[in-house]
Amino acid sequence: MNEHEDKMRVIIFTRNYRITGVIELLQGARLTDYLAEAGSFIAVTSAEVLDRDSHKILATSFLNVHRDNIEIILPSELSSTA
User: Measured between alpha carbons, how far is 82 from 76 in angstroms, rounded to an integer?
Assistant: First the structure.
């Protein structure tokens, strides 16, 4: 990461999974802007994936999430479930 990027911890809900992790935004960018400019996949680091029953599926230092599978994404600080 360089001085022009900010890290944001996010929660991503797909149809089958809840993913928590970190994405890297350009400094001062909003999450909405990031998603609008993202390609087919978004990179998530320090990721943890849970199934719908909150069972841990995996933890990894990196994964890509296909943007079309995202139903909800939000900064984790805005969630009471984080």
Answer: 6
Which residue reads 């400094």 in tokens?
A: 27
pTM: 0.87
Residue 68 pLDDT: 94
Distance, CA of 10 to CA of 5 (rounded, Å):
15
User: What is the amino acid identity at position 39?
Assistant: G
Which residues, 6 or more positions from 71, have their beta carbon under 8 angstroms from its beta carbon?
13, 14, 15
| Residue count (the chain) | 82
Q: Starting from the edge strand earliest in sequence, which strands make up the sheet with 56-66, in order?
A: 56-66, 41-51, 17-26, 5-13, 72-75
Per the structure block, which two tokens stand in for 4? 């022009």
- The whole-number pLDDT of residue 14 equals 97
47-61 residue pLDDT tens = 999 999 999 999 999
**Dist CA 14 CA 10 (whole Å):** 13
